[in-house]
Amino acid sequence: MIAKIGKPGHKTRGVLNYLFGPGRANEHTDAHLVASWDGFAPDPGRDPDATLAQLATALDLRVKQAGHNAPKSHVWHCSIRAAPEDRHLTDDEWATIARRVLDATGIAPAGDPDACRWIAVRHADDHIHIVATKVRGDLRPPRNWNDFLRADKELVAIEKEYGLRQVPRGDRTAAKCPTRAEQEKARRTGTARTSRERLRTIVRTAASAATSTEEFFRVIKGAGTLIDVQYFPSGDIRGYKVALAGDTNAQGEPVWFSGSTLAPDLSYPKIAERLAPAAVGLALPPEATAWGRLAQAVDRMPDHLASGGDEEGQAHITVLAEALDVLPMVAPAGIRPQLGQAAAAYERASRSRIRADHQQAQATRRAVKAILREPAPKDGALLAITLDALLLAVIAAQHWHRTRAHHQQAAVHIRAAYQTAATDPLTAPAPGQGPSPVAAAPAGRPGPSHTARTGRTDPHRARLARPGRHPQRRREAWPLRSTAPR
Asked: H/E/C letters for each residue in 310-323?
């Protein structure tokens, strides 16, 4: 069961015309009231003597009494829809649901004689519409702040009590989708992605690559992106906004996006928290190469996710996204598309309502940034090893989210990149194209299995044995693990 609360309107009669009318495709049938503020509101759907004008006048009575103190947009409109597979609810059940939602949102608290006037209209089997006028009996506005979240919380309880489908709820950490206008503009200009999506990728990659907020801003500017940093009067940074060069509005001004409008974790405070200087903590062996340190750090992620606290787990999931963001910048050209798709697919899973303790993952974060600052290896063994470890870490992250009732993540693209790097005959890259994976491990020299090295079976590794995968490809790929630094 889901609720949709529209933007407040100013024409009560206009909403009623729609609710009691035929609908946009004649889908409205038997429109009638199932409940109202006092149980005696005129019902144009069932009472031949009642009119829409009478109902609108009754709803607007207190709006008229409040005069210029009434809000300009006084019409509150909420639709509540059951899932297609749910049983058909009776009018009495819908009436009870409407009253509970109105109570939860603060529009009409139970037992309050001064609550707002409202009606609940049913014109289909699977949903109702609630319309209220936002002036109370004492001529004050209702306290309905955050009404959608409160309505949604009440619907969760209703689903359980009524035996309805329990709809997975979002956690409000998803990036905002492009608007229709942004999509239309991208089509007109012949670009595959909107400005919002392109800027999100640029900013996310810059945050993953930079070691400080100053470098973060320099990387964005170096990518040819316009950036405007805002400051408090004290001189401290307040935030930033970015725009694509050449992307302008009707007035010829750049179309700016703040970091928080690109994604919740791209606001300046979130970026500064991730790039804060690391406290003394776990260090990786200094003698290992940058790729070796990254492979070691990522290889430990499943254990951190399985045994650490929620804050530590979220920190490792965030830094795993940073690793996926930077890999397309240094990997061979042949697997960059798969790695880019993996980073895009994993982006949603890098966030949750759990606040990350970023200090717990600083060793891995340093390893991620180091591969951009050291020469790439001359062969691709470490790349294949790193992709192997990343695949297991992504699967572990997927399990971590699932056990916490989060609904995000998939690993198909990183698996494809690993298979390419580990099994295809690969050659040295052209200058400036990054490391080149090695063709195959020496035959007859398999490395020790995970079980032999640790004395236990790795549940994440077992998930890789998908039906239909060629066994010989797996035997050739996994010996690359034997060269991994430990």
From this structure: HHHHHHHHHHHHHH
